[in-house]
Amino acid sequence: MAGRNFLFVPGPTNVPDRILRAMHRAMEDHRSSDFPGLATSVLEDLRQIFKTISGQAFLFPSSGTGAWEASLTNTLSPADRVLASRFGMFSHLWIDMAQRLGLEVEVLDAEWGEGAPVERYREALAGDKGHKIKAVLVTHNETATGVTSDVAGVGRVLKELQHPALLMVDGVSSIASIDFRMDEWGVDLAVTGSQKGLMMPAGLGIVCASQKALSTYDQARLPRCYFDFGDMRKANATGYFPYTPSIPMLYGLREAIAMLLEEGLENVFARHHRLAEGTRQAVKAWGLELCARKPEWNSDTVSAIMVPAGINAAEVIDVAYRRYDLALGAGLARMAGRLFRIGHLGDLNELMLLGGVAGAEMAMRDVGMKVTPGSGVAAAQEYWRGTAKPLAKRDLPPRAPDAQPAAPSAKEKATAGAAR
Question: Is 258 helix (H, G, I), strand (E, B) or coil?
Answer without folding.
Answer: helix
